[in-house]
Specification:
alpha/beta, four-stranded parallel sheet, binds iron/sulfur cluster
């Protein structure tokens, strides 16, 4: 097996067994803090000497969570809560829960009631009107409050230098991963949609410094690879989650590569680095103000549509695949205006529903196959 394949296999192993990586870190004496989507200040957890662990749900059937959430709430929240209720996250010292969408607004209360003191909640708020001075000031006040809570949890004060160092670790990771997504788009013959997802996902369960080293080595190997002779299709993906192994396999089987993405758990948080400021917390608040094109953030003029059009043009993609998380209101609201923008730009779009509790994507297979056939006919 080549070094590249070996490294991709390592990422797949970590991404498909996140519990193992987390238990290893806990056994080494490091405190772990669960981080729910979206845009929590993970750097503060890292600065406090703890390991942030991504909590984006799991591929499983939820049952206990149904006592707290009705069935029309998204599976990301159902399965994340289910893991907590079943005791599978007991290695966590706390969990950060933001209130970025209507469904998330009930999560902290459900967690406190169901999981209780076993895993205390750090509530995360930030301004939606995040670019204006008042919004920046509000977000900064919240980051300060959260830092105090984390200091209490970690048992020691966190210096501005420690925050600055953590920000540097995260920015390096963002740059390495963003470069990886470009190279993966250029080399679909070497990086399958499943591999691409695994490299990005593994970072949620690793120390970001170690993950950067891994991603940078993969990048170096891809940079030295011969030019690609890929003749399959290339799509830009968008949505909340792209982590649906059965669906990614269907893309691979149909010779469809992921050319680029505008996915909340993949490239969206990677595109923006932290501006230099005297107070690193202010830089972190300002960074959030620069993030665009995500359905859970106030997005006047729907920059997401503009970004998708640019991604398709820059990557030479054949169309867009919308991975619609079932029961996700923010994504459903975005769909209509963004689809209109893509239609006007003449960009083909396929929307496929995804769900953490769905293992069988046979209906999606027919839709993907039909879409691929149309795209191939248009190309020829
Ligand atoms: S944004 Fe959508 S997928 Fe994310 S927590 Fe809210 S409803 Fe669920």
């Amino acid at each position: 097996m080549s070094e590249l394949q070996e490294l991709l296999r390592t990422c797949r192993e970590i991404a498909s067994h996140p519990g193992k990586a987390c238990r290893r870190a806990a056994a080494a004496g490091r405190k772990l803090v669960g981080v729910m989507p979206y845009f929590c200040p993970e750097e503060l957890v890292y600065a406090a000497g703890m390991l942030p662990v991504g909590l984006w749900g799991a591929d499983m059937q939820a049952s206990l969570s149904r006592r707290y959430y009705p069935s029309f709430i998204c599976s990301l929240l159902h399965t994340a809560l289910e893991l907590g209720l079943r005791g599978e996250l007991d290695m966590l010292s706390a969990v950060m829960i933001p209130n970025s969408c209507d469904s998330l607004k009930g999560m902290a209360a459900n967690w406190k009631y169901g999981v209780g003191d076993r895993i205390p909640v750090v509530s995360v708020s930030y301004a939606q009107n995040r670019r204006i001075p008042a919004g920046e000031e509000f977000t900064l006040s919240q980051w300060r409050k959260i830092l105090r809570q984390l200091e209490e949890l970690g048992g020691e004060a966190v210096s501005p230098e420690a925050v600055r160092a953590a920000v540097a670790v995260y920015d390096r990771n963002r740059s390495a991963l963003l470069r990886f997504t470009e190279l993966a788009g250029q080399h679909p013959e070497l990086v399958t949609p499943g591999d691409r997802c695994a490299v990005l996902k593994a970072g949620y369960f690793m120390d970001r410094a170690e993950h950067s080293a891994l991603a940078e080595r993969i990048n170096a190997l891809l940079e030295s690879a011969p030019a690609s002779c890929w003749e399959g299709l290339r799509l830009v993906t968008t949505g909340i989650l792209a982590d649906a192994p059965a669906l990614l396999d269907i893309l691979e089987e149909n010779r469809i590569a992921v050319a680029a993405d505008q996915v909340a758990c993949e490239s969206v948080p990677l595109r923006y680095l932290t501006p230099e400021t005297e107070d690193p917390l202010l830089g972190m608040a300002r960074r959030l103000g620069t993030v665009e094109g995500c359905s859970v953030l106030y997005d006047p003029g729907k920059q997401r549509g503009r970004q998708l059009i640019e991604l398709v043009r820059d990557s030479g993609a054949d169309g867009v695949l919308w991975l619609m998380t079932k029961f996700c209101d923010p994504e459903e609201y975005d769909y209509v205006p963004v689809k209109r923008m893509l239609d006007e730009a003449g960009i083909p779009l396929l929307c496929v529903e995804t769900d953490r509790q769905t293992a069988n994507y046979e209906q999606a297979r027919s839709a993907v196959e039909a879409f691929a056939e149309i795209l191939r006919e248009t190309k020829n």
